[in-house]
Design brief:
binds zinc ion, mainly alpha, 7 helices, two-stranded antiparallel ribbon
Length: 132
C-alpha cells in the first residue's frame, strides 16, 4: 500500500470519528435536508483544511453527500429544502446550500434564482462558497 493511500485512509477514519459529535450536533438528522431515520455520515466540505475539522464537516444522508460531488441531481423540486437551508446558521450547511442553489439557478430553475436574489451572505461565508 502506498503512503498516500494510507494517509487517505487515516483521514477518512479521522472524519468518521467525528460521527458521534456530529450526531449530537445534528440530533441525528441530515444537516442539509433534515431527513431522519436514514444512514448519515460525516462529510468534509471542500476545500478541506490541512487537518480534518468537524466545523468544516456536515452529517449528511447519502443523497446530500452525493450532491457535494455531483451537484443536485434529479427533479429540481426535490431540492426545494434549499430555500431554507441557504439561511442555515450552521456555516458549512449554508455554504453547501448556496453552492447547490447556484447550480440549480444556472440550470434555469426559477425558485433557485429567486432565492439567490434575496440572499445576504456574511463575507466569510461568501469567501468559502467561492473557494470550491
Ligand atoms: Zn440530506
Amino acid at each position: 500500500m502506498s503512503k498516500s493511500y494510507l494517509k487517505h485512509q487515516e483521514r477518512l477514519n479521522e472524519v468518521r470519528g467525528f460521527g458521534r459529535a456530529l450526531a449530537r450536533r445534528s440530533r441525528s438528522s441530515c444537516e442539509l435536508c433534515g431527513v431522519t431515520g436514514e444512514r448519515l455520515d460525516p462529510v468534509e466540505i471542500p476545500p478541506v483544511p490541512e487537518e480534518p475539522d468537524p466545523e468544516r464537516c456536515l452529517f449528511l444522508c447519502d443523497r446530500c453527500a452525493a450532491a457535494i460531488e455531483r451537484g443536485p441531481t434529479g427533479d429540481p423540486n426535490g431540492w426545494r429544502f434549499l430555500e431554507t437551508a441557504v439561511w442555515s446558521e450552521l456555516e458549512p450547511a449554508q455554504v453547501v446550500a448556496v453552492r447547490l442553489t447556484r447550480q440549480l439557478s444556472e440550470e434555469d430553475v426559477a425558485w433557485a434564482r429567486e432565492v439567490l436574489e434575496g440572499l445576504y451572505l456574511a463575507p466569510e461565508v461568501e469567501a468559502w462558497v467561492d473557494a470550491s
